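Bumping with the actual sequence this time:
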Amino acid sequence: QVQLVESGGGLVQTGGSLRLSCRASGRTFSSDAMGWFRQAPGKEREFVASTSSSGTRRYYADSVKGRFTISRDNAKNTVYLQMNSLKPEDSAVYYCAAASTWYSNSPRFEANYWGQGTQVTVSS
């Protein structure tokens, strides 16, 4: 059974940093594209960032470009999201996702599996 377990969320002040981690099990992690999404109260889930199976290709939402960095360690079956210069509007539940298909010319990401989410709150 596939499991994606996020960690690293919490409360941080505006301008601060957090690093989210997502550890995968039950699949060949190095074969999957991985992504991060977020959902704020009353809003739809939105794409944040994604990385190809090798980690050499990445896409970011415009709202986080230059502030967030997605990376992965295939030896540890883990994907990370480094979040810097955080803003109150970054507050949301952040979800890790795995996808078996990577679209090389598009940020399109069709998740096959989801984690349970981790809360990030940025205070003003």
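The tokens above came from a reply further down the thread. DSSP finds no helices and eleven strands in the chain.
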